[in-house]
Design brief:
- The chain has 129 residues and is mainly α.
- 73% of the residues lie in helices and 3% in strands.
- The protein has 5 helices and 2 strands.
- The chain has a two-stranded antiparallel ribbon with strand order 1-2.
- The longest helix has 50 residues.
- The N and C termini lie far apart (71 Å).
- The mean pLDDT is 94.
Length: 129
């Protein structure tokens, strides 16, 4: 299954501009081209686009994404190194998630306070009206 950049864009939800940027940055290893030098996206290229999207959403810096790609290009001997990069990122995600959980709880409490205050203000207005 080979797809054009337009088809890859539709499938992944990434703009063609973003896909071209990823390619220029060397983030889509082994990307093929047809006889007219158009990009051809096979299953592996689409997998990389999906992985890059996931890594971006989770806040992995571009330099770390490039590191994973470069390690991949070096072959199976680098699997342990790739695992280490992803585990480090996973730990950072756990830390950020804990921060977000604390912030979420704080906002929930503040909303509850404001909603209670709103009820009290509404009651005072009703008594006056």
């Amino acid at each position: 299954m080979q797809q054009t950049i337009k088809e890859a864009s539709a499938r992944t939800g990434l703009s063609a501009h973003t896909i071209r940027y990823y390619e220029r940055e060397g983030l889509i290893p082994f990307l093929g081209r047809d006889k007219n030098n158009n990009r051809i996206f096979d299953h592996d290229a689409l997998h990389w686009l999906e992985l890059l999207t996931c890594l971006r959403v989770t806040g992995m810096p571009l330099a770390k994404q490039k590191e994973i790609v470069e390690l991949t290009k070096c072959g199976d001997d680098t699997v342990s190194d790739r695992i280490a990069v992803l585990k480090e990122h996973q730990e950072e995600m756990y830390r950020r998630q804990a921060e977000m959980d604390r912030a979420f709880k704080k906002i929930e409490k503040k909303l509850a306070c404001y909603e209670e205050l709103e009820k009290e203000v509404s009651k005072k207005v009703d008594k006056l009206g």
